[in-house]
Amino acid sequence: MASSTTADRMVSTTELRHSFSVAMSKIYQNEVPLYSNLLRLVSSVNEAFLDSHPLIREQFRVTHQLERFHYERHGAIRLGTAEEMAAMARFFALMGMQPVGYYDLSQPPANLPIYATCFRCLDLESLSINPFRMFVSLLRPELVSPTLREKALSILSRREIFSPRALELISSAEARGGLLASEAEEFIQEGLKPFKWSGQATVSLEEYQELQAENPLLADIVGFPGPHINHLTPRTLDIDAVQKGMEEYHIPMKEMIEGPPARECPILLRQTSFKALEEKVYFPVLPQQGGAGSERILGSHTARFGEIEQRGAALTEKGRALYDWLVNKAWTQGVTAADPEAYKEVFRPFPDTWEALREQGLAYFRYYPAKDAAKPRKGASIEELVREGKIAYEPLVYEDFLPLSAAGIFQSNLRRSSSGSSKAAADEADGGKESLQRAIGKNIINEFRTYEELQEESLAACKAYFEIEN
To answer: Percentage of the chain with pLDDT > 90?
Structure first.
């Protein structure tokens, strides 16, 4: 039997995801030059942080986290129909990305006519190589005013976000159980097309203004030939330093950082961004408006921006309940991140050492045998080995999103607060998660279960290494 050629080999989902992430970053840097400046700033801040924290650098080296910082980023897109979501889910699945977490952005403070999930990989090995993730939101037409709902759906029904060739590659890979190396480059290039910016609107200027008057997000979703990525987000180790650096670089930044306050032991997710750019758009002049078919009017659109995130430890349900309680307390007291010291004071009850977070069951951790750890005596427990230093641990990185932070970023870059009309309609709508799952074509994974499984896997590996009986 002839040996298979390199071109005939199957490409791993991790390899595909990595190549796609790198290609998307290059496209966005070309389309949004300010994003290139942001990447340079983040890289500089990260190196400075690691230089001043050699123990953290060594810890990251031992646990193979250094590599992921070079490539780690997330993106976000907004889809218009269930058919678009189904196609996108199939595309991401071939890169090992599954829907994790349900985000209802129709609720306050966002009041946006969308719900969302995060497509990402799940296992530690894939995450350590390239943890690229995509926050994908979908329009909820039932939350759009009746006068615009039919028009929006009619416009969306006329577009296909993936090319016929992309869908053909997806179908053949699904049937085969993976993508061939000879197809990988074409798969990535065809798959990138929906994410690219188009300065050509598919609606007239009048229609665009009508959609925008109800909600700028509606105009962004409906008015273009594809969803186009609206931001990419590199990860930093010191978001406060990046915020200061943006000011020095004259990058138009958000006024404050979203998420928990600065801490010795970072938790969950802190985010900031540079403000969305105003970009030129050409709008068609429709025949009923006197257009000859190719005539266009120059206008503008504001939606795309650059975001930065600092990821901390994933919290358990107990830890998340405490965090949410403190967030509500801050709201009640009228305290926001705009007053960092007062905000930090509200969060003082949240423990700020890894030992306390672990012992109180507030965060998830990965456990592993310490370097040169000798085999212990028979009958030793995991906790005893942790105390003796034979088992080390590190926090599991939070791979998901915070609805409040997403809402804050969305609102600041839409440059307008949404009305309560979406919320009023949302009160009448139910089964949001089930509806989104039907659109995706598979169940949404509970994010807490993903961290529990990773923690349990690491404990099982330690038990096997040290021959600990259950």
So the answer is: 66
The count of C-alpha atoms lying within 13 angstroms of the C-alpha of 26, restricted to the half-sphere facing its C-beta, is: 9
Q: At what angle do helices 54-62 and 33-52 cross, to 10 degrees?
A: 100
- Spatial separation of the C-alpha atoms in residues 161 and 84, rounded to whole Å: 7
CATH 3.40.50.720 fits 10-313+401-429, yes or no: no
Give me the half-sphere count of Cα atoms (radius 13 Å) on the Cβ side of residue 46.
24
Let me know: does 68 contact 127? Beta carbons within 8 Å: yes
Q: Which of 213-222, 300-309, 367-376, 409-418 has the lowest mean pLDDT?
A: 409-418
Mean pLDDT of 100-123: 91
Nearest to 106 by CA among 342, 385, 436, 450: 436
- What's the pLDDT score for residue 7? 60
Q: Is the distance from CB of 195 to CB of 32 less than 8 angstroms?
A: no
Termini Cα distance of the chain: 47
Alpha-carbon 449 to chain mean position? 18
Q: How far is CA 411 from the centre of its chain?
A: 16
Give dist(CA 396, CA 372) in Å, integer.
Answer: 23
Q: How distant is the alpha carbon of residue 444 from its chain centre?
A: 15
- Tens of pLDDT, residue by residue over 126-159, are 888 889 999 999 999 999 999 899 999 999 999 9
Residue located via tokens 């949410």: 324
Q: Cis peptide leading into 109, omega within 30 of 0?
A: yes
CA atoms within 13 Å, Cβ hemisphere of 264: 9
DSSP summary character for residue 195: G
Q: 238: closest CA among 205, 274, 276, 264?
A: 264
Question: What's the pTM?
Answer: 0.89
Tell me the domain boundaries of the chain: 10-313+401-429
Burial of 282 (0-12, 13-18, 19+ CB in 10 A): middle
**Are 414 and 111 spatial neighbours (Cβ–Cβ below 8 Å)?**
no
Strand partners, 102: 117
- Of 374 and 290, the structure prediction assigns the larger pLDDT to 374
Q: What is the pLDDT of residues 208-252, one digit of tens each?
A: 999 999 999 999 999 999 999 988 999 999 999 998 888 787 788
Residue 453's Cβ-side half-sphere holds a number of Cα atoms within 13 Å equal to 9
Note the pLDDT tens digit of each residue in 317-345: 999 999 999 999 998 999 988 898 999 99
How is residue 193 annotated by DSSP? G
Max intra-chain CA distance, the chain: 87
